[in-house]
## 1
Amino acid sequence: MTRTTDAVVVGSGPNGLAAAIMLAGAGLAVRVIEGAETPGGGCRTAELTLPGFRHDICSAVHPLAAASPFFTQLDLPSLGVTLATPKIAFAQPLDGGRATWLAGSVDETAGGLGADAGAYRRLLGPLVRQAPLILPDLLAPLRSLPGHPLAMARFVLSGLPPASLLAKRFRTDEARALLAGAAAHTMLPLTAVGTGAFGLMFMMIAHAVGWPVVEGGSARLVDALTAELAAVGGELETGHWVRSLADLPPARTVLLDLTPRQFAELAGPALSARQRRSLERFRYGPGVCKVDLALSGPVPWQAAACRETGTVHVGGSFDEVARSETDVNAGRHPDRPFCLVAQPGVVDPTRAPAGKHTLWGYCHVPPGSSVDMAARIEAQIERFAPGFTDLIMARSVRTAADMERYNPNYVGGDINGGAATLRQTLLRPTPRWNPYRTALPGVFLCSASTPPGGGVHGMCGAGAARAALADLAR
Ligand SMILES: Cc1cc2nc3c(=O)[nH]c(=O)nc-3n(C[C@H](O)[C@H](O)[C@H](O)COP(=O)(O)OP(=O)(O)OC[C@H]3O[C@@H](n4cnc5c(N)ncnc54)[C@H](O)[C@@H]3O)c2cc1C
C-alpha cells in the first residue's frame, strides 16, 4: 500500500533537512523534494578543480553548526561527523608581516592585543562567560521572549553600537581589524546598526566553540542529516524542481526551504495582491564572487598566525575593510576587496593529495554581479603571502550571477537568504508573530530567510518544524 504523505519539504539545504528530521521524528510521514541532483543546498563538497582536491562549494567553516542546539542534540560524532577545530579561530593579516588573531580564551586573545588587552577583556569577557545562556537565544527568533533576559540584555547593550563605533573602544590596529573582520560577515557597511552585535556574536562563538571545518568536507554534515532522516523514516527525492505549490503531492503541511521571492512565485494566484506586496518588501543583500583553488603547497602567509588557522579575513585594517563593504553596498566592485578565505588543509589533510592544499575564498559584490573577482581576491592574498600565486595549479570561479544559477535561494548571489539589516534581523521574513507561518494555511517557510538567518545551523528548519507541529496538534 502506498504511504500517504503528512508533510512535504521543498528543498534539502541544512534547514530543509533539519525540518524534515524533526517532523519525521515526531511520527509524520515526510517527503523532501530537492531540485538539484544531490541534496545539501549550501553544504556540498566536490572536486571543483583537479582530481583529489575536495572543495566546499558553499559553506566551509562551521562555528554556527558547532553552537547550534539542533546539531548538538543530533550528536554529530555518532553520525560520523568530525569537526576539526584549529587552535586559532580566525586571523587577519596586516601590512608589515603583522596579524591579529582570535584563539582560545579571552585572556589568550587579549594577550596578543597589546594596549587593547584590557578593553578586549572588558568587552568580550562578560559575554563569553554568559555565552551558554546567550547563544541559544541568538539562534532562536529574536521576537520571542529570551530564555535568559538579563544575559541577553547585556549582549544587546554591548552590540548596540555599529562596528564603526565599537571600534572606537580600541586604540590598536590589531583590535580594530579583528572586530572589522568579524562584523563584515554581515555584508553591511560597518556603520550600520547590527554590525556591532554580529561581530560580537561571531567573536563570542569563536571563544565558546571555535571555528571548525568538517573533516572530509562540509558534505559530510549533509550525509549525516540524510542518514538521520532515513533512520526516522523520511524520504528524499532529488532532481525534481518544484514549479508550483499546486503540483505538490497532497499533504497536511508543507515546509519550503525557499526565500520569500520563490515562495511568491510558487504560490502564484493563491496569494492576494496584499500578501504578495508584503513578500516583495523582503530585501536581499549583496552577492558574493567565489574562487576555489588547487594549490601545490600551503599559503606562505608572512604572519605565523595566518598559517595556523582555518579562516583568514583578508583585507587589511579596519578602515580598508569598512571601505570595501561601503563600496559594495553602493554598487561598486572594490579594487581591494575584503575577502573571506578558508584553508581547511591546516586541520584536515584529507582535502587534497599529500602536501597539496585547497583554498576557498570569496568577496562581497553588488547584487547580481557577473564580474569575476578572482584576480582581485588573489592579489589581496598575495599582498600578505608573497609567492602565493605561484602555487596555484587550477581554479574554479563562481560569480554572484553563477551563484543564483547554482542555487535559486541565492538571489542575486546573496548567500544569507536576505540582507542582515536590523529590521530583517528582528522581523525576517515578514512581520508576523510566528515568523515561519505564511499567509497560506499549512504552508511554512523554513529557509535562512527566516530566523535566525543565514548559516549552517539548522535552527530555521527546527523553528519551522515546531510551528508546523503546533498547528497540526490543534
Ligand atoms: C559561497 C558560500 C559560502 C558560505 N559559507 C558559509 C560558511 O562558511 N558557514 C556557514 O555556516 N554558512 C555559510 N554559507 C551559508 C549557508 O550555506 C546557508 O546559509 C545555508 O546553506 C542555508 O541553508 P538553507 O537550508 O536555508 O538553504 P540552502 O542551503 O540554500 O538550500 C535550499 C535548497 O532548496 C533547493 N531548491 C530551491 N528551489 C527549489 C525548487 N523550486 N524545487 C526544489 N528544490 C529547490 C536548492 O537546490 C537547495 O538545495 C555560505 C554560502 C555560500 C553560498
## 2
Amino acid sequence: MLANQLARRGVHALIIDRHTGPSVQTRALGVQARTLEIYAHLGIVERALDLGKRATGANIWVQGRRAARIPLGDIGRDLSPYPFLLILGQDDNERLLGDALRIRGAAVQWNTELVGLAQEANQVRATLMQPDGTTSEVRAAWVAGCDGAHSAVRELSGIAFEGAPYEHVFFVADAQVTGSMVPDELNVYLWREGFHLFFPMRGTDHWRIVGILPPDLRGREDLTFEDVIPSVRKEAGTQLSFEACSWYSTYRIHHRRAVHFRNGRAFLLGDAAHIHSPVGAQGMNTGLQDAYNLAWKLALVVSGRAGAALLDSYEDERVPVAQRLLSTTDRAFSLVVSDSIVARLFRTRVLAKIMALAMRIESVQKLAFRTISQIGIRYRSSRLSETLAGLPESAPRAGDRFPWLRLKLVANGATEDLFDKLDDTRFNLIVIGQVAPSGGIPELGELLRIHEVPSEPANDRELMRAKIPRVSFYLLRPDGHVGLAGVQLDAAAVSRYVSERLRFG
Ligand SMILES: Cc1cc2nc3c(=O)[nH]c(=O)nc-3n(C[C@H](O)[C@H](O)[C@H](O)COP(=O)(O)OP(=O)(O)OC[C@H]3O[C@@H](n4cnc5c(N)ncnc54)[C@H](O)[C@@H]3O)c2cc1C
C-alpha cells in the first residue's frame, strides 16, 4: 500500500521482503469499508468486490440461541459506498496490491532481508542480505518498517514494543461446514467457555472458524482440526456437520504497541507498530491505513513541497488510533475469553440482552458501523486539524474523514458521488453555497482541486443529512480527512493554514 501510494505521487521506493514470494496463507479475512474507499482511489476496488464476499450483518448467538444481529449493510447505506464487511483473504489483497504496483512499474524484491540500519543526517544506510549470506548496502532518504510483528526496522531503531502475550491459544480453520450459521453473514457464538467466530468465505458452506483452544487441549503441539472439532460441536451445536478442512493453524497472540512510530528517518507501520487480538477484523486494515496516512506526507516532503516537520503528524495521528484499537480489542477479547464466573454470566446472560436492545437504536447501530468499518477514525487533536470559529459543534470538523455525499456539482445537473470526484493525490477544497476563489490557493497551486457545491434543494437535503451548514467550506487533505474547516471561505485563511500547519514553502 505504501509503495503504491508513493508511486502514484511520483516517489520511487525499493521494496524488499525476506520471503521467497507472496504469502499463500489467508490470515486476515475482513476488508473494512474505509479500506475499500482507499482501494477505489487506487483502482482495485472492483476486482476486490468481484473476488470477495459481502457480509451484510453479524449475528450474535448465545448458548446456541440467536440473541442479536448487527446490521452492517442497511445501517451503513448512507455512510459509505461500501456498507458491508468484504470477506477477502489477505493473500488476495496482497495480490491485488502487487498487481497495482506492477502496473506502476514497481515490484517487491523477494529473498532480501534487512539486517543492518544506520541513520545519518540526510540518509539511511541499510544492509541487505541475500539467501546465500552475501550482503550489500543501499542508501535511501527514508525507511519504512512494514516488516511485521518481529520488525527488524523497529529493533534496529531501538524502539520498544510494549505489551504482553495473551495466555490463550487461538485456532483458525477454513472448513466446509453446515449448521445454524446465517449464510453470508458473520456468526459470533458466545459460550460460557469462550467463543467461536464463523466468517463466510467464497463458495458454498465454506467458513473460516476462529476460536480459542479449550483448556484441556492447551499446551499440546501436535493438535489437528479433528482434535478441536468435538469442542466446536459441543459449543456451536451438535447439528454442525464438517465436510472438509483446507487450512488449520494455531497461534498465540500478543497485544503490543511500539512506543514510537518514528525514529528520525525510520517509520513503523502495520504489525511492526501494533498487534492485537483479531477480534473485530481490524489488524490488516489498520496497517493499510497507516500507509495511507504516511504516504501523502512523505511524498510532499520528498518532493520538497513540505518541510520534514509534517512527518511528525504521522505518529501524532496514528499512535492514538493504535492505542484505542489495543484497548477496545483487549476489552472485547477479555470479555469473550475470561474464565471467571462473573464474565461467563455476563457473556451469556447480560451481554446478549444489552446488544439486542442497543441494536434496536439507530444511533447505536450507526456508531457500531462507523467504529467497525473504520470510517469513524478521526484526528481532531492533530496539529494538522484546524476548525475555524462559527462552525456548529454537530458539523464534521477538522480531523474527521469527510462524509460520503451525493451532490449536484453543477446546478440542475446529475447527482454525482463526491468520493469519485475527489483526487486523493491532491488537496480538495469543497466550497459550499458560496463562490470559490478564482485564483485558487497560490501556496497549493496544482496540488489543489476545487469542488463547488451550488445551493439547491437536493444538495441542501444531502448536506443537512450530514449536518453540514449550507454555507461552509472544507479543505480536505489527500487522505480525505478534513484539514481546515469553516463557514465563510477566506482564501487568506487557507493560505495561512498551508504555510503554518503543513509547513509548505
Ligand atoms: C490467523 C490470523 C488471522 C487474522 N485475521 C485478521 C482479520 O480478520 N482482519 C485483520 O484486519 N487482520 C487479521 N490478522 C492480522 C493481519 O494478518 C496482520 O495485521 C497483517 O498481516 C499485518 O500486515 P503487515 O504487512 O504489517 O505485516 P506482515 O503481514 O507480518 O508482513 C511483514 C512482511 O515483512 C517481511 N519481513 C519481516 N522481517 C523482514 C526483514 N528483516 N527483512 C525483509 N523483510 C522482512 C516478512 O517476510 C513479511 O512478508 C490476522 C492474523 C492472523 C495470523
